[in-house]
Amino acid sequence: MSVRFKWVYLALILLTTLLIACQQGSSASFIGTDLTGTQFGKPLSLTDHTGKLRSMNDFKGKVVVLFFGYTHCPDVCPTTMSDLKQTMKLLGDKADDVQVLFVTVDPERDTQEVLAQFVPGFDPRFIGLRGTVEEVAANLSEYKVYAAKVSEPGKSGYTMDHSAGLYVFDKTGAPRIYLGYGEKPENIAHDLRLLL
């Protein structure tokens, strides 16, 4: 084996090692389900808790966390909103580049006034969204969210049975991550940092 061939061979091994190391260091590994490249969830257009019509375009340049819930929820929704509040604290200064949107699955009870009391109570930067029953149903369908009224025997009123998870969109508005219910704030913050 010639000296020149040894140097070329050694250089190729070194180059291959460097390329592998660079590739491993640069690949984003989400804790949640990677939605990159999916085409679901047409841009929503709903009214916020201040009465302003909002769409996803209003939040371009920010990472958006979308959660479907309702204010009368006894457990899942307030727990998730509390987890998002903690996530924002973990993000520190970067939290200003994140927009949390709470979309009601119960527009009959979650009026603008009710959302205005509930949603910013967790963090004043959070925005509550609502629409007509038909508008909300269309958004639920677009995002593959299940929601149904469940009557409470012996009580007046109802609860909502609904799927719970977080849809995360990057700064361009593209769907990137789905995080299931119960994900720890540290894990949510980890995934959001990868998009900030």
Question: What's the short version?
Answer:
Helix 2 (76-91) crosses helix 5 (185-195). A hairpin with a 5-residue loop joins strand 9 (165-169) and strand 10 (175-180).
Short descriptors:
single chain, 196 residues, alpha+beta, Glutaredoxin, eight-stranded mixed beta sheet, 5 helices, 24% strand, globular, disordered N terminus, metal-binding
Structure notes:
- The protein has 196 residues and is of the alpha+beta class.
- It has two domains: 1-28; 31-195, Glutaredoxin (3-Layer(aba) Sandwich), CATH 3.40.30.
- It has five helices and ten strands; from the N terminus they run H-E-E-E-E-H-E-H-E-H-E-E-E-E-H.
- The strands form two sheets. The chain has an eight-stranded mixed sheet, sandwiched between helices.
- The longest helix has 24 residues, at 3-26.
CATH topology descriptor of the largest domain: Glutaredoxin
Percent strand = 15-25%
Strand order of the largest sheet: 1-10-9-4-5-6-2-3
- Overall pLDDT level: 87
Rough shape?
A: globular
CATH superfamily of the largest domain: Glutaredoxin
* Percent in helix: 25-40%
Radius of gyration, CA atoms, in whole angstroms: 22 Å
Instruction: Report the end-to-end length measured between terminal Cα atoms.
Output: 51 Å
Number of H/I helices: 5
Question: What is the CATH class designation of the largest domain?
Answer: Alpha Beta
- Under the CATH scheme, the architecture of the largest domain is 3-Layer(aba) Sandwich
Estimated structural class: alpha+beta
Number of domains: 2
Largest sheet: 8 strands, mixed
Number of strands: 10
Order of helices and strands: HEEEEHEHEHEEEEH
Low-confidence stretches: 3-27
Disulfide bonds: 73-77
Family: Belongs to the SCO1/2 family.
GO molecular function, one term: metal ion binding
Binding site for Cu cation: 73, 77, 162
